[in-house]
């Protein structure tokens, strides 16, 4: 299939074409990278936009169960829902969302849903770009809502928040009356905190935990992109499918307000600038990873170590060498 055909089929919402295109953006082969960039350039003029919802939470809080219940609720409303994942640990664990597909059985059989496991590799930077491009492909394919799930480890929440319009933090009811070890930085990113498992024996604890977080949210600095009452904490039960309509109503309220007050567009513009910056940094760092650059660096490092060259002079020489290679190429 050539790129024109692939682009055409994606625009028609063809899921096989979409899956194929995502495989293309996930590839690190140089010719595939070039094709992926070309494909995205062809899709961009169509300006299709989805609501991108980032979702984070530690393992076991019920992300997969929530995505299944929430996703099915949205498709029942006639919306098309895509689920993507950013999981930097998947290289080791074999992919969290993969095993999760069984937990998302209903959603994965839904014709209006598309679930894509996290690409299983290496560093967060690579996963971030691939997910971002997969988001763009899902938008072009006409999806209305894109859920981007991540486990709460390391920097992955930040990465997901940087590509989302809304960021949800999913929590479980706390045992005691202390707040769970949620880092302040992550609290500050959240638009909505959802305390899951508000059912059965856990319900009182969930209500208490929710109140604790509502209090903690009020203590945070007010953000310009929030109307009165946001960010907000709510209880839900993914298993009982309770509180999901209410959570969706709050999300829509927030989105409408941000659109009306130009924060939506401003946020997307700032995100685009951020990713451009990241791409430049990646590309520059990649220049150091070539065999030639490594050899030149090793040689200069040896001279720095023996004291015949200063670190600054060696760095200058290396950069001059890289510039020369660029011009020759
Ligand atoms: N009681 C209760 N259990 C839940 C709820 N949501 C998820 N669970 C359970 O919590 C466990 C972890 O759920 P899972 O969706 O795999 O969490 P994830 O690791 O965050 O994706 C499973 O045993 C679920 O059945 C809920 O709303 N109520
Ligand atoms: Mg899961």
TrEMBL record:
It holds the Pfam family MeaB. GO terms for molecular function: GTP binding; GTPase activity; kinase activity. InterPro entries: AAA+_ATPase, GTPase_ArgK, P-loop_NTPase. This is LAO/AO transport system kinase. GO terms for cellular component: cytoplasm. Belongs to the SIMIBI class G3E GTPase family. ArgK/MeaB subfamily. Residues 49-221 form the AAA+ ATPase domain. Keywords: Kinase, Transferase. It comes from Jhaorihella thermophila. Signal peptide: none annotated.
């Amino acid at each position: 299939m050539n790129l024109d055909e692939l682009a055409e089929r994606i625009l028609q919402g063809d899921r096989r074409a979409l899956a194929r295109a995502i495989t293309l953006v996930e590839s690190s082969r140089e010719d595939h990278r070039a094709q992926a960039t070309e494909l995205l350039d062809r899709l961009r003029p169509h300006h299709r936009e989805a609501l991108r919802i980032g979702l984070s939470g530690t393992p076991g809080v019920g992300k997969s169960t929530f995505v299944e219940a929430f996703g099915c609720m949205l498709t029942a409303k006639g919306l098309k829902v895509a689920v993507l994942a950013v999981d930097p640990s998947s290289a080791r664990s074999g992919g969290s969302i993969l095993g999760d597909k069984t937990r998302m059985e209903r959603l994965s059989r839904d014709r209006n849903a598309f679930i894509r496991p996290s690409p299983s590799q290496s560093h967060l930077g690579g996963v971030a770009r691939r997910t971002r491009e997969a988001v763009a492909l899902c938008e072009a394919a006409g999806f209305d809502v894109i859920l981007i799930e991540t486990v709460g480890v390391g920097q992955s929440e930040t990465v997901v928040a940087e590509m989302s319009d809304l960021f949800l933090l999913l929590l479980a009811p706390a045992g005691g009356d202390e707040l769970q070890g949620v880092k302040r930085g992550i609290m500050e990113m959240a638009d909505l905190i959802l305390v899951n498992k508000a059912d059965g024996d856990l319900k009182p604890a969930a209500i208490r935990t929710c109140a604790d977080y509502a209090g903690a949210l009020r203590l945070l600095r007010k953000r310009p992109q929030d109307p009165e009452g946001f960010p907000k904490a709510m209880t839900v039960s993914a298993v009982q499918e309770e509180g999901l309509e209410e959570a969706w109503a709050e999300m829509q309220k927030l989105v409408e307000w941000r659109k009306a007050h130009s924060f939506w567009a401003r946020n997307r513009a700032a995100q685009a600038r951020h990713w451009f910056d990241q791409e430049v940094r990646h590309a520059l760092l990649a220049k150091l990873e070539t065999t030639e650059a490594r050899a030149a660096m090793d040689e200069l490092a040896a001279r720095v170590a023996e004291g015949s060259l200063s670190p600054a002079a060696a760095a200058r020489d290396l950069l001059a060498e890289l510039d020369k290679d660029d011009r020759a190429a």
